[in-house]
Amino acid sequence: MNLALKNPMPIADENAALSSTLPLLKVHQLTKLFGHEKGCQDVSFDLYPGEVLGLVGESGSGKSTLLSVLSGRMPPDRGSVQYAEDSAEDNANWLDIYAAGEARRRQLLRTEWGFVEQNPRDGLRMSVSAGANIGERLMAQGVRHYGQLRETALHWLQQVEIDAARVDDPPRAFSGGMQQRLQIARNLVSSPRLVFMDEPTGGLDVSVQARILDLLRSLVRELDLAVILVTHDLAVARLLADRLLVMRRSRVVETGLTDQILDDPQHPYTQLLVSSVLQA
Amino acid sequence: MTNKTTRAAEGYNFAYLDEETKRMIRRGLLKAVAIPGFQVPFGGREMPLPYGWGTGGMQVTAAILSPEDILKVIDQGADDTTNAVSIRAFFERTARVATTTRTGEATIIQTRHRIPETPLKSGQIMVFQVPIPEPLRFIEPSETETATLHALADYGVMHVKLYEDIVAHGHIATCYAYPVEVGDRYMMDPSPIPRFDNPKLHMNPALMLFGAGREKRLYAVPPYTKVVSIDFEDYPFEAQRQEGVCAICGSANTYLDELIMDDQGTRNYVCSDTDYCQEHAQPSGSRP
Fold first, then answer.
1. Which fold does the domain A1-80+101-112+192-280 belong to in CATH?
2. pLDDT tens digit sequence for A204-238
3. What is the ipTM of this complex?
4. Strands A251-257 and B40-41
């Protein structure tokens, strides 16, 4: 503390360095309501490249609605989501997700974005092989070389720790945890900058959860991914997220760095949420 | 040309369908021709035979038929199979049009599963009977989703099918209804013609009309339209290669049917296109 007071310059420099990085996503006054306090309202935040943002809150608090609106799947009642297209040092071409056409939105979702569903069955094509699942995004982008697609599929199976010999098996022959890892591979194959995840470890066994979290953590660091992660599990949030948004009854009640929120919650609801977790 | 003296059906409009229905189908066809490969919905009528027997093709034929037309009907390449004979007789009776089995003489050729071997000419019209008009259905069962994929020309999933073929068989094993891209825009199911016939769709001087009776869709490939069979760079499209030659006419470059001759499994091959086969089996001019 004293040190910081004595040497204010380095800190100011650090701030300057941070502020020169442009956000990847700018969310302003986003509102989508299905009824009184059902959905999400007045949500604003900036997401920076490489940042993992956790959305936490009890069920029905509007986390998943917010995620759908953010990811271009559900038009909001009010507010805007702006995405930095081909951003350079200090200027970006801001794309308003809902002002852009559906074609552009879909293109974003299968190239620069990814979406990992809670249930892998929703995010995978269950009737085609694991390799085809991984290659689909590339084929949609115009890759027309079978050998190349195959090589990429094998590489990504390895990345998510699935035996390469399973490349031709359909996902329904995989265990739940393997399906989830396959879904992650399918999303990451296009080298996205931003990935949305809806309770990616939701329906899984604790040991499998740990393995997937471990994998996600290393991939996120390795690929410098920005992630918006919905979870009701504070342990998952602690492990993965840099920053948290605590939601309750459609509103964001508290926001801050993960450790700060979990160790020193300010809002009564957050305090309740944190204290309700069993301490290991 | 054979113009049999069949008994005309009494009490029916020319070519069975009423004029308003024909107009409706013609409007659909005009739209289909204007947007090559695009599926146009139409109000399909009940025909006096079951779905799957060519009701879509018959409605298209009925809508475009004029008294001066000369009609040829083929089923799997043959003029003399049940379906071809029945549909030909149907239009002989309801429209009293001349019919023929010779490809070169026909102005309208209704077909199931084949494009004739004899090259088509400008002015001729091919009418295809289509069971499933939607090429994306196998991978995307939702109709609203496939409509969106067509609208956005988002056809990546088509290659997923080919990828799966190579995984399972080591090569692209789809040998009929092989998907094509029409006019650099729409993905189209060319109806269950063999892959062998796909190259004939490209830059063909004849007009190609497709009618799906059960699903009530029309689509078209206008004359001289670019039609590309989709493929991979390292697994390029190729029309099937045939083993053997036709046992009747000796042709080696036609699409052949395989016949089992006896209980010992002796095989023979004959042209699937009966008209082409007859023409090449006999010295020209001596044909009955």
1. Rossmann fold (3.40.50)
2. 888 888 888 888 888 888 888 999 999 888 888 98
3. 0.80
4. unpaired
Edge-first strand listing for the sheet containing A194-198 = A113-116, A194-198, A226-230, A52-56, A243-248, A251-257
Check CB contact of A128 with chain B, cutoff 8 Å.
Answer: yes
How high is the mean pLDDT of chain B?
A: 92
The token duo for B66 is 């004029």
Dihedral pair phi/psi, residue B100, rounded to 5°: -150, 165
All residue ranges of chain A with pLDDT < 50 are: 1-19
Neighbouring C-alpha atoms within 13 Å toward the C-beta of A134: 34
Tally of residues, chain A: 280
Going from N- to C-terminal start, the domains of chain A cover 1-80+101-112+192-280, 125-191
Chain B interface, best mutation among A111, A124, A127, A146, by max B CB count within 10 A:
A146
- Euclidean distance between CA atoms A51 and A225, whole angstroms: 7
Residues in contact with B124: Cβ distance below 8 Å, sequence separation at least 6, in sequence order = B106, B107, B108, B109, B205, B206, B207
Q: What are A279's two structure tokens?
A: 């301490």
Q: What is the pLDDT of residues A111-144, one digit of tens each?
A: 999 999 999 999 999 989 999 999 999 999 889 9
- Minimum Cα–Cα distance from A130: chain B residue: B164
Q: Kind and range of the H or E element at A41?
A: strand A38-47
Q: Which tokens hold the place of A89?
A: 């040092």
Asked whether the beta carbons of residue B152 and residue A106 sit closer than 8 angstroms, the reply is yes
Strand partners, B267: B260
Which member of A128, A139, A168 has the closest CB to residue B156? Answer: A139
Q: What is the DSSP string of B68-129?
A: T-EEEEEETTBSSSHHHHHHHHHHHHHH--EE-S-TTT-SEEEEES---SSPP-TT-EEEEE
DSSP string over B113-171: S---SSPP-TT-EEEEE-S---TTTTT---HHHHHHHHHTT--HHHHHHHHHHHHHHSS
Whole-number Å distance between alpha carbons of A106 and A232: 28
B157/A145 Cβ within 8 A: no
Pairwise CA distance, residues B185 & B37, whole Å: 8
* Residue A165 contacts B where some CB pair is shorter than 8 Å: no
As annotated, the active-site residues of B are: 37, 246, 249, 271, 277
Among all chains, which residue has been given the structure tokens 């007789």?
B89
Q: Which residues pair with B125 in a beta bridge?
A: B108, B207
